[in-house]
Specification:
Blueprint (H helix, E strand, L loop, with lengths): L6 H20 L3 H13 L3 H4 L1 H24 L1 H21 L3 H29 L3 H32 L4 H4 L1 H15 L14 H19 L1 H4 L4 H23 L13 H31 L4 H7 L1 H22 L2 H18 L8 H28 L7 H36 L4 H30 L22
Amino acid sequence: MPTNRSDRTRWLALMVLCLGDLMIVLDTTIVNVALPSIRADLAFTETSLVWVVNAYMLTFGGFLLLGGRLGDLYGRRRLFLAGIAVFTLASLACGLATSQAALIVARAVQGLGGAVVSAVALSLIMTLFSEPDDRARAMGVFGFVMAGGGSIGVLLGGLLTDTLSWHWIFLVNLPVGIIVAVLTVMLLPADEPAADGGRLDVAGAVTVTLALLLAVYAVVGGEQAGWLSGRTLGLLAASALLLVAFVVIEARSSHPLVPLRLFRLRRLVTANVVGIMWSTAMFAWFFLSALYMQVVLAYTPLQVGLAFLPANIIMGAFSLGLSAKVVMRFGVRWPLALGQALVAAGLGAFAMVPVEGVFISDILPGMVLLGFGVGLAFNPVLLAAMSDVEPSESGLASGVVNTAFMMGGALGLAILASLAAAVSAGLMETGVAMPAALTGGYRAAFGVGAAIAALAAVIAAVFLRDVKVPGPEGAGMETAPANPH
């Protein structure tokens, strides 16, 4: 990217990238609120309805890594525009769907477009903002969009479904997608491919994409088929074998899709391990806390969305500069560790919710703790993961980061939701009333999530090498080298 672009244009470009990515983040949660209406309208069964969500997760998780690398090889703006176009057209198809098959196929195509947009947007931001202090502020804004988008999706999904129909949770993407595409052409100049050679490692791309697809397919269907069933174990084994083949291919390729030396970068590896554990806890918390409020406390979809607002407001405060100031003053290591510890404390608060919970005393404290935790941690974990890679591989690193979050989230949601269901079923078998049994299951899952987040805090504190970012006056702090390895 040119370095003589006006500061105002760069920040406008950031808003466009965040808006594009917000569409993608929203679609991971906005559908959940509308599922009952979709089921009634298109005559889904309980079993088939899950594929409205799973089809999106499957292609989204499977193509993140490939999408990031394609951006490096063929131009990030070009791939970002292509991803926005695919996602927007697929949203139109979803909104106009009149059959189960049409909706599920369109959701799968949405996931493909979303994977490309998510993988490329982060690398574009890293390229636009090369100065460490500007990058910290930009990543704070991006982090808020990523972290708060899920909660906004619940609120918007409830509002659109209640006032219009479920079709509009998809159709609302049309004007947004068009605006993002037009502004991208206006604000982001055409970039040259960042990676040398312009060649795609086809064998590596096929094996890793199939491995991720099979892994996500096994995870999202594990609860229904059984975690120890032949189907689930067979899919996971096939995924593992493909990953082994992928490693062998990458070790021998002259133009590898993922250079194995990346996994010798301590910050990248540590940040991704923390990210996997964090998303394992957070995806499950978001899903199960919404269920607790809807099923146990009888909140409406709109009330559930409003309940998440305190956390969003706190995350918004961090995105407006507080997160950047913290990173510039303390680096990434301790803010990340403290943020994870606050996330663990917030999940611990949810692990004590009663059957007749009151918002002020039982839900709000956990929301506040989680808001501070996510606000503190999101910017540092992204900066840590991207700090060691060369500019030509930032799209690839972005794909790795997004894949880690996606896989951790999918796995965490499936396992902790299964744990909650198993505990609830066991309690009901002993004669416990349904509301109390459901609450017991949710509390168990929240408790495990809290333990996972606490472990992530320890890993960040012990293993992460700091990346200190200078403030406006330097403050005597040194920026880490681009690639110390």
